[in-house]
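This is your field. Have a critical look at the following sequence-structure pair:

***
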Amino acid sequence: MRRAITSFIVATSLCALSPGAEHKTWSKIRYVGGTVVIKTSPYDYNTTLTVGLNPEPIVVAIAPARPFAPLQTIRIKPDRVISLSLGQNAWNRVSEVRGAKLPARAPSLFGLLEDHGFMGIVYKTDEGKPAAILLDTYYRWPILSVLKELTGKGIEGY
């Protein structure tokens, strides 16, 4: 019994993360469109979004449609984020950015099959140019709440 308790305490202490190294990572995200020039598959949810603590950037790793092509990584500084949005408003905000490429929207069936899982991030690049990313995910609320806390921006569209 003593050995089991000791091994449990050791395993628990090894699995605990230090607060200085806290990262939040989400996968199962689809890159829909934006100012990043990359060809992705509309059926693959292979994009990963990682948010670190304040001095670290927001990192979006987009998987291309080709099987052995490298990931395209975008690093966004939290102070450069202009707006966070979700749903139809995210689509509209990203499409307003100059140079953003979005696919044609699928028609809805009497409003029943509308997709409101969109999440938009509009930001400025290091050169000062506006840029945007439109993502599709079921985890939009946890992601947007962490991004809202990190950037201090409100969420548009809810």
Summary: The helical segments are 2-15, 88-96, 140-151. The chain has three helices and eight strands.
